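Side project, low priority. Logging it here so it doesn't get lost.
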Amino acid sequence: MTNSSTTALPQAWRPPMGWNSWDSYGTTVTESELLANARFMTEHLKDAGWDTLVIDIDWYDPTARAHGYNENAPLILDEYGRQLPDPVRFPSAANGKGFAPLAAAVHELGLKLGVHMMRGIPRLAVDRNLPVYGTEYTARDVADLDHVCKWNPDNYGLNQRHPGAQAWYDAQLDLFASWGLDFLKVDDMQTPFHSDEIAAYHRAIAKAEAKYGRSIDLSLSPGGWVATSYVDFLRENAQMWRISDDLWDRWEDIYQQFARLARWAPFQTTGHWADADMVPFGHIGLRAERGDDRQSRLTLDEQKTLLALWCMGRSPLMVGGDLPTSTPETIELLANPALREVLAGSTNNRETVRERIFKHWGEDDSYRGEFIVWAADAADWADGTPSAHRGGHYAALFWTGSDDFEIGGNIQLQSIVGLDARDDDWTLTDLFAGAPGAAADVRLEGEGSDRVITGTIPAHGALWVALDRQ
């Protein structure tokens, strides 16, 4: 679908959908691997809304390795301490070209390019006392040695009370914008919450956007213990912000996101998105931080649960598996048009039911799992695309237990469509129809106001539907 409106769209008008190298390649992705994923995305996923590729951490470390970071790494810097791509892994970056040639190649495919960046200034720049571009200050003047990342050794913090700190970020962002980058994932910003650093980075992006005439989306990481009380500040300064620590291909990681997305869903708004983190699908762990080379350990039902929950919660989707070597089933799931449809065209997204289910009432040792229901209203997209389910609704019914769950008659249709519309004629469409795996058992039963949504939810599974007036 294309934009039929001549009005400029809001930045990040829908939650971004893209690919990030972290889950598959960790710190070691190469130019050829990035381009292979870009070409695959263009051929198989672009029409379904996937349009962004992000090179994750340490693209400037020529000694980068799988499963960790390097102390005192010989980072590749320019004369002002700004990071440059390793020309061995990224040959087009040689001779000071940076990511400009790679960004141009990605743009030629109709896609966007982003990179990961750490908060602060490289330790190596401080050790060499390199000048801060456009100022009389040096790296030692602006560094904050007391506020450094606890898990990555590359950088010192910046002393935001010093005028040279803003100048450092301004110069860094000017370089990135000159390369044509569209997206920046900036790490070590929220845990703890570095509001001065976030605001400074936002100011630098705004200056670069004004100078080069192109927008740059800012994604903040990580997200452990991020409070919703920060939402106004986050909206002022970023397009995305993580709401959890790193998520991997474990059911427990997905389960934890139910409560987080329920907490953040009421705060999702056009251009500013709470992010439930990576989608660890497909071929991951090739040279990653965690685990061995593998296809995702999540079952197909667990993967469907993640996709339905992220979309109903309007979280960005950033898949982590190497696309060309992922299974056909993975690509089928990602190519589902319902993903973009619900991300782009839903409102009033909320959790409506959450109940702990026991095999025997009152016996705690017979606990089976949680039955969770989400609802949303279908809405036209901000780009002018009409909703495929205008006037309708979306519902997702989740089951966290390890056995199948029979819904019975507990979910009345009127709880999704509203009391005023309960007597209208409604049809149900399975949003996972045609997806790999077993066909969903979900249906409408009953008459009039007594109608219910019923069926069977598989272990760790989801039923995801659209409801339309006839």
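Brief comment: The mean pLDDT is 96.
Revisit when time allows.
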